[in-house]
Amino acid sequence: MGVAKTIAFQSESYLLDGIISKGEFPQERGALILHPHPLYGGDMYNPVVTGLERVFLEAGFTTLRFNFRGASTAGYAGVEGAVIDASNALEVLRSRGINQFALAGYSFGGSTALRLASETSPILLITLSASQALVEEGGFELARLAEVTCPTLMFHGSSDMMVPHGDLSSLASKIGSDNVETTLLEGEGHFYHRSLGEVLNRIRNFLVQ
């Protein structure tokens, strides 16, 4: 599949740990994969996160997953802090010559990915169970999502008891891209116990379009 290397990088006063993986040949495209809420057990080893990593590696991306502050360190600072952490993680990819990058995130990570995508220029964006309340945390205006102009793929479970499934269409409607695909997964909850395989196959197809 590829070669994985454990790394550490600075984000403000925090030293964060991550795993960068790449295939046999040097890749010009990277994928930053963002995990669920660090205060509720989310970290870079989450099975949805590692599933996303696997699909991106198969598609020829170099991948980086890492632990937000609050997961492997103290200092949780909400989505705003997570965006800073993710921005510094992007610099890790850029330092390795990767200037084309995708963003993918699950739950808290998906909400962070949306905000980061409005400030950067990803080549594509994938979110699973992103939360509008988290996106708006700290006064972020949803209108800023109009700055997201890359192809975007979004998923949410219809039976999600943690994040309202209506957030899917609400967030998608604010994104500026002309290519936004949304999938409401019937009977799925927040943890993708039923449909993770289906979701990963959809993402495989999305990456080769």
Q: Top keywords for this entry?
A:
209 residues, alpha/beta, Rossmann fold, 8 strands, 25% strand
**Unreliably modeled segments:** none
Work out the number of β strands. 8
**Level-2 CATH architecture:** 3-Layer(aba) Sandwich
CATH top-level class: Alpha Beta
Q: Which structural class fits the helix and strand makeup?
A: alpha/beta
Please bin the fraction of helical residues: 25-40%
Residue share in β-strands: 25-35%
Describe the structure in your own words.
The structure is a single chain. This protein has an 8-stranded mixed sheet, sandwiched between helices. Strand 1 (3-11) and strand 2 (14-22) form a beta hairpin. The protein has one domain (3-207): Alpha/Beta hydrolase fold, catalytic domain (Rossmann fold, 3-Layer(aba) Sandwich). With 209 residues, it is of the alpha/beta class. 31% of the residues lie in helices and 25% in strands. It contains 6 helices and 8 strands, in the order E-E-E-H-E-H-E-H-E-H-E-H-E-H. The protein has helices spanning 47-58, 78-95, 108-117, 132-135, 166-174, 196-207, and strands spanning 3-11, 14-22, 29-34, 62-66, 100-106, 124-128, 152-157, 180-185.
Brief digest:
Helices cover 31% and strands 25% of the residues. The chain is of the alpha/beta class.
Q: How is this fold's topology laid out?
A:
Elements: E1 3-11, E2 14-22, E3 29-34, H1 47-58, E4 62-66, H2 78-95, E5 100-106, H3 108-117, E6 124-128, H4 132-135, E7 152-157, H5 166-174, E8 180-185, H6 196-207
Parallel strand pairs: 3-4, 3-5, 5-6, 6-7, 7-8
Antiparallel strand pairs: 1-2, 2-4
